[in-house]
Design a protein that fits this description.
The complex is a heterotrimer of chains A (163), B (288) and C (780).
Chain A (H helix, E strand, L loop, with lengths): L1 E3 L2 E8 L2 E7 L5 H8 L18 E4 L2 E4 L12 E3 L12 H8 L9 H14 L5 H7 L11 H11 L7
Parallel strand pairs in A: 2-6
Antiparallel strand pairs in A: 1-2, 2-3, 4-5, 4-6
Chain B lengths: L5 E3 L4 H8 L4 E4 L5 H6 L8 E4 L9 E4 L2 E5 L4 H6 L1 H6 L1 H7 L5 H4 L4 H6 L8 H6 L3 E8 L2 E8 H4 E3 L2 E2 L6 E8 L6 E7 L10 E10 L2 E10 L6 E2 L1 H7 L6 H14 L10 H21 L1
Parallel strand pairs in B: 1-3, 2-3
Antiparallel strand pairs in B: 4-5, 5-10, 6-7, 6-10, 8-9, 11-12, 12-13, 13-14
Helix pairs in contact in B: 10-11, 11-12
Chain C lengths: L6 H7 L19 H6 L14 E7 L5 E7 L1 H4 L4 E6 L21 E2 L5 E7 L2 H10 L1 E6 L6 H5 L16 E7 L2 H6 L3 E9 L11 E6 L5 E5 L4 H12 L6 E4 L16 H12 L3 E4 L2 H7 L6 E9 L5 E13 L9 H10 L5 E10 L13 H19 L3 H8 L18 H12 L1 H4 L10 E13 L11 E7 L5 E5 L8 H13 L6 E4 L17 H28 L6 E4 L2 E4 L5 E4 H10 L6 E7 L18 E13 L5 E11 L6 H20 L5 E2 L2 E2 L17 E7 L21 H13 L10 H16 L1
Parallel strand pairs in C: 1-12, 10-11, 14-15, 18-19, 25-28
Antiparallel strand pairs in C: 1-5, 2-4, 2-6, 3-5, 7-15, 8-13, 9-10, 9-12, 13-14, 16-24, 17-18, 17-23, 20-21, 21-22, 24-25, 26-27
Helix pairs in contact in C: 10-11, 11-19, 15-16, 16-17, 18-19
Classes of the chains: A alpha+beta (163), B alpha+beta (288), C alpha+beta (780).
Chain lengths: 163, 288, 780
């Protein structure tokens, strides 16, 4: 890590791409993703780690990017919501969110989808209670969660909850 | 505002201790408590931040000579899922797995949970039950020096610990047998998830011939620090778990805690909830 | 599915002889969902304009004070600070429903969120630091923290022009209360206290303001009411409305919070004017909690009576609203509250008196339900008390008094369709009301279960409070067969875009992917009064349907010409002109349109419609048929109460709603599920706590909205009454599902414990306390 005018140059990999940015030591990862890398799919919701809108995968674990300093991430690997879809093809979790009506205003959706991704990564066939637990750190004000839970279960158990 | 101008991530404890000795320096572990304080200007950002997460010595769970050592920078999710912890001290695994949400547990460390010294710290009560010792290190004239204190001596008040300037919490230690027996830990909140405890109770009981032969009780969020329920223990030890004893225990508990009223609950309500949780846990333990 | 034939739907129901799939009632995913799922959607916070500055506001953080001076010198001189403004730098134009607010405050602070100064700077960090360097000297005044303090003799005066601290009173009456009282065999009365609930939009509030070289102001705004917004904002910022362009980026939730003009909006315009650069101003979550107006806290004193057979006789209501330090449109919520008291059930004599009282608390604005959740809580709680006194089942009592189709209520609302009785029967049936419900037991420890119900009434076909409650549509079909619908309505996450596309696609026989809905720029948006009153599906849907119907006629005429057939023998389906009798495709729609462009006609398909609902502005007595139709619903909640901790767990909710007709099954379920979740929050955990004017809970840790772990078992039934005025028979149903949740839960808690709690939220501590008090009074 190099130091330049109080800014540190850090390198990490995001969505399979190597990037290098120069940030001040007090910059959050959330801010770096949004402002430096223009990965605005990751949202600011509270800055407290209480809403989950900024959830991303960091070294294989789901984290609130508002609670991480960018400088902590030198050498890390991350996946953000922009890294899930494969070209024109939505990731199955994204597809399920769309199909099940799990998205209304959509502001929580990226974080919610990342949490679902983390869950299914670790536990491909969760039960409903496990899904609810895995999403407890992601607040949604529009949907009442039912369709979100259905969407995640539909991916886990192949096919829509309504089919 | 003097924004943070230096960031270090040392690889060894010696380096960490050297950096920690400098003024206006904050040691960063999981960051889940520190980050919001900085970004919301509740605390001024320090001049120097030292990331303690890359020091192998401070990470993971080890077991040697019947002593379990938990590195201060072990994340809570790792702790909750660690087979040694699950086997020897399931009460700690349970509490670590109930902190906030997955995002937070993946970052937050047990050391951070303790150093933050919230009366509501979820892992504190289980460690009190386990008679855990806190290992503290600092830079000495000829390398690192360390001291060890019981966990009950570590907490000094809300946000206050026994750590002196330049000192680092490195390890939490407890005996493998400390967790044996019937155990329970519960936190009470006004919502079933993402909750900071309004009150919490933990217990370890060993019952022989229907007599309580060993007991540890601990309470969270009902005193300036997470506390051991010594009076409750005294009311239990050597007794049968009958209705009289239960009532005396609840009285002892409600007497020894010193809750405050705040936005989350009144002191009176915290007393009642502690009584109810304790009584239910004891009845459940008796049934086991 | 039966459909009531009307003028509105006649022409499209001329039943095609060939059966075909309908988009109406289908589970259509939201058209904007793929972009939202992939993070491509650019919300306000995601937009960066070249040379954009960041705005920040200095809030008073004290509830009541004189401002002696504001010293901005230390902020002005900071590197990267481009403008610092105070009330001295702007025209102080009063705005808000009470005309008692200004963008920045000059002499007097009346609540903690009062805006004193603002900064525009190169970065958000510099702006925040500059705000900290502004020095204000105050003379603190005694704080009026409660309504009681505000009306006490000698109370401090909050606004000089209102020396009694009582800016508004509302009165309503039908029948003769004294007659009603005399006719009653049973009379009950009680006082109900309702708390502040806040919207908690996941995306915090914000705006971007930018002037161009000609003085045209472009706003990226989250407003729910763009047409009125331009008009009202114009006066405050001294820019002619014709020089304001409103762009509405996708929005991270609204729920009524974007109905008013908030001070931060003109402030941002003033910063843009002062710097001649684009300025973005967004709230932190903490600011969102403090400076977003809440749902109205209300104290409702309700007295009501019935005859021995259960017939309702009268209802006498006194309401007191803690208005806070300033007045937004929220002060008018009693207009909606009174409709529930007067018209949910048949009751011959109703009187309502409302006092709106200034305090030094934060103020309130519109929030899903608009005064109805409060009224419904009081009313539906009291009906259960009445039922017990009468020795009747709560269901029987409600059915006896339920409104029926064809009635005109005491307040002059005409119920052309009304599914209330069916809602009552259906929801209770699904909840197992007859089987599961038993009177409260004598159990003292452990956990007990109970069932409770509540119904609701709300406007379902707009609410005519402006001279127009209408919406315009401009529809064009291009040479590739793509229909572009410019609608006055706005998408705020609720799914209106998709519903409008469905309606147009259905009418034009197009694939829904061939319909584009444009709704986010005031340069092309026709007039619409805004997204509120659950009106969009009904009003904008009707307008879109009528525009599409006209376009359909034009296509069929051109096709008939082209094919040498009679247009009555033709239909549109699957992007084709088909033969009505056989379904045989004859020619594609785009080919017909290209023929119009290039052929002899040299014409295009472009239709316009302005739909004004057949409703009326209420008279000076608040009477009249304010909406084109009305929505009804019933919820039954099943709860479990822990008698030793007071924890209430909602196990299940059975909901039946009269929705007229389902347009989008997926969307309507989403509205219901989301509304119920907000209702559970209102009932159990949500309260903005204010003490001596200061807000105590500014985080999601201390303001608790439901999480994924609190989703109860839901049973939903959508009853289709096929309202003759609705598009395909649909009524509005956005606010409805929130309204009856809290009283259904409170009634269930009573059924479980025998303890009636007349205030919200039902926190564990409050519930336990009431259980103990009721035991203490029993043992006395």
């Amino acid at each position: 890590m190099q130091k330049a005018n109080d800014k540190l140059c850090i390198e990490f990999e995001v969505n399979g791409e190597a990037v290098s940015i120069s940030v001040s030591p007090s910059t959050s990862l959330l801010e770096s993703l949004r402002d430096h890398l223009e990965l605005t799919g990751t949202k600011y919701g509270c800055g407290d780690g209480e809403c989950g809108a900024c959830s991303i995968m960091l070294n294989g674990k789901i984290v609130n990017s508002c609670l991480v300093l960018a400088v902590e991430c030198h050498g890390s690997k991350m996946t953000t919501i922009e890294g899930l879809a494969n070209g024109k093809h939505l990731h199955p979790i994204q597809e399920a969110f769309v199909k099940n009506g799990a998205i209304q205003c959509g502001f929580c959706s990226p974080g919610m989808i990342m949490s679902a991704y983390a869950l299914l990564d670790k536990n491909p066939a969760p039960c409903e209670a496990e899904v609810k637990r895995a999403l407890e750190g992601n607040l949604c004000r529009c949907t009442g969660y039912r369709k979100i839970i259905d969407a995640v279960l539909s991916v886990a158990h192949g096919g829509s909850a309504h089919e | 505002m003097t924004p943070t101008s230096a960031f270090y991530s040392p690889k060894t404890l010696d380096e960490l201790l050297e950096l920690a000795a400098a003024p206006d320096t904050t040691i960063l572990a999981g960051g889940t408590d520190l980050m919001p304080r900085w970004t919301k200007n509740i605390h001024p950002t320090p001049k120097t931040v030292v990331d303690a997460k890359h020091i192998e010595q401070l990470k993971g769970v080890k077991c040697k000579d019947n002593i379990i050592s938990v590195g201060a920078c072990t994340p809570l999710d790792e702790l909750a899922e660690n087979p040694t912890i699950q086997r020897a001290s399931p009460v700690l695994a349970e509490a670590a797995g109930k902190v906030a949400c997955p995002q937070v547990r993946n970052r937050a460390t047990i050391g951070g949970n303790l150093v933050n010294a919230s009366p509501a710290a979820d892992t504190a009560v289980p460690l009190i039950l386990l008679d855990a010792a806190i290992v503290i290190a600092a830079q000495g004239p000829t390398g690192a020096v360390s001291r060890e204190i019981p966990i009950t001596a570590f907490f000094r008040g809300p946000g206050q610990t026994a750590l002196k300037a330049g000192e680092i919490l490195t390890t939490i230690r407890f005996h493998t047998s400390a967790g044996e027996g019937t155990w329970a830990w519960q936190k009470f909140g006004t919502r079933p998830s993402m909750e900071i405890a309004v009150a919490s109770v933990g217990m370890i009981l060993r019952i022989e011939d229907e007599i309580v032969a060993h007991t540890r009780i601990g309470y969270g969020s009902v005193a300036p620090v997470p506390m051991r329920g010594a009076a409750t223990e005294a009311a239990l030890l050597g007794q049968r778990l009958n209705e009289d004893v239960l009532t005396r225990c609840v009285e002892a508990a409600q007497d020894e805690i010193t809750p405050i009223s705040d936005i989350r609950a009144s002191a009176a309500y915290r007393r009642e909830v502690i009584g109810t949780m304790l009584r239910r846990m004891l009845i459940h333990a008796k049934g086991k | 599915m039966s459909r009531t034939a009307t003028e509105t739907v006649d022409t499209i129901t001329a039943s095609p002889s060939v059966k075909r799939a309908s988009l109406i009632g289908a589970r259509i995913p939201k058209l904007d969902a793929p972009d939202k799922a992939t993070g491509l959607t650019r919300y306000l916070d995601d937009i960066k304009l070249p040379r954009m500055l960041y705005g920040k506001i200095l809030f008073a953080h004290r509830p009541h004070a004189h401002i002696l001076s504001i010293d901005t010198s230390a902020a002005v001189t900071m590197k990267g600070v481009r403008a610092v403004i105070t009330a001295d730098d702007i025209d102080l134009v009063p705005f808000g429903f009470g005309r008692d607010n200004t963008a920045l405050k000059k002499d007097k602070i009346t609540c903690v969120r009062d805006e004193l100064a603002a900064v525009a700077a190169d970065t958000p960090e510099i702006a925040a630091e500059a705000i900290k360097r502004i020095r204000v000297s105050y003379e603190d005044l005694p704080v009026v923290g409660t309504v009681e303090q505000a009306i006490a003799a000698g109370a401090p005066v909050i606004h000089e022009k209102t020396p009694d601290n009582q800016p508004f009173h509302f009165d309503y009456e039908h029948g003769d209360i004294d007659l009603g009282i005399r006719a009653s065999d049973v009379i009950v009365e009680d006082t109900y206290n309702l708390q502040r609930q806040t919207h908690c939009c996941m995306g915090t509030a914000g705006i971007i303001a930018q002037f161009d070289a000609q003085g045209i102001l472009t706003l990226h705004s989250l407003t729910q009411v763009p047409s009125l917004y331009k008009h009202d904002l114009s006066r405050i910022i001294n820019v002619p409305p014709q020089d304001i362009r409103v762009i509405q980026p996708p929005i991270g939730g609204a729920f009524g919070s974007k109905l008013d003009i908030h001070p931060f909006e003109p402030i941002c315009v003033f910063l843009a004017r002062a710097t001649s650069r684009p300025v973005k101003l967004t709230f932190t979550r903490e600011e969102e909690f403090m400076a977003t107006p809440t749902r109205q806290p209300m104290m409702i004193h309700l007295r009501s009576g019935a005859q021995k057979d259960g017939t309702f006789t009268f209802r006498d209501v006194r309401m007191t609203l803690d208005n806070g330090g300033r007045t937004s449109w929220g002060a008018t919520t009693p207009w909606i509250s009174m409709r529930t008291f007067s018209s949910l059930y048949r009751v011959p004599h109703v009187r309502q008196h409302v006092d709106v009282i200034y305090t030094n608390n934060i103020y309130a604005c519109a929030f899903r339900g608009y005064g109805n959740p409060q009224a419904t809580f009081a009313l539906e709680s009291q009906i259960d008390v009445l039922a017990e006194k009468l020795g009747m089942d709560p269901l029987t009592l409600r059915l006896k008094n339920a409104q029926q189709p064809g009635e005109t209520t005491g307040q002059g609302m005409v119920l052309r369709t009304c599914g209330l009785a069916d809602c009552l029967k259906t929801a209770t049936k699904h909840a197992g009301w007859d089987v599961k419900r038993s009177p409260p037991g004598k159990q003292k420890t452990g956990r007990v279960r109970g069932l409770g119900m509540a119904s609701m009434f709300h406007v379902g076909g707009g609410a005519k409070i402006h001279r127009s409650d209408g919406c315009g549509t401009m529809l064009r079909i291009d040479d590739f067969g793509v229909a572009t619908v410019q609608t006055g309505s706005s998408e705020i996450g609720q799914g209106s875009e998709t519903v409008i596309a469905q309606i147009v696609a259905e009418e034009l026989g197009l694939d829904i992917g061939k319909v584009r809905v444009l709704n986010s720029n005031s340069d092309y948006k026709p007039w619409d009064v805004g997204v509120h009153a659950s009106r969009t599906t009904f009003i904008a849907g009707n307008s879109a349907l009528r525009a599409a119907r006209e376009a359909r006629g034009k296509i069929l005429d051109a096709a008939a010409d082209h094919l040498n057939l009679d247009s009555v023998d033709l239909d549109l389906y699957g992007g084709q002109v088909i033969k009505r009798s056989t379904g045989e495709p004859l020619v594609t729609i785009d080919k017909i349109i290209r023929g119009m462009h290039f052929g002899r006609k040299n014409d295009m398909i472009m239709t316009t419609d302005f739909y004004e609902p057949p409703s009326e502005i209420p008279d000076e007595h608040s009477k009249g048929d304010i909406s084109a139709c009305y929505a009804f619903g019933t919820h039954v909640a099943e709860v479990e109460v822990d008698l030793e901790t007071g924890v209430v767990k909602v196990l299940g909710i059975s909901a039946a709603h009269d929705v007229g007709r389902v347009i989008n099954q997926l969307g309507i379920e989403g509205q219901l599920e989301g509304g119920i979740a907000q209702g559970i929050g209102y009932a159990l955990t949500e309260e903005v706590k204010v003490e001596n004017g200061r807000v105590l809970n500014l985080t999601f840790t201390d303001y608790k909205i439901p999480t994924s772990c609190e989703v109860p078992e839901l049973k939903m039934v959508f009853l289709e009454t096929n309202d003759p005025a609705g598009p395909f028979g649909a009524k509005g149903m956005a606010e409805a599902p929130l309204v009856p949740v809290a009283p259904a839960i409170a009634n269930a808690v009573y059924n479980a414990t025998g303890v009636r709690i007349n205030e919200l939220p039902l926190t564990p501590e409050r519930v336990l306390r009431r259980i103990q008090e009721s035991r203490d009074s029993e043992s006395e």
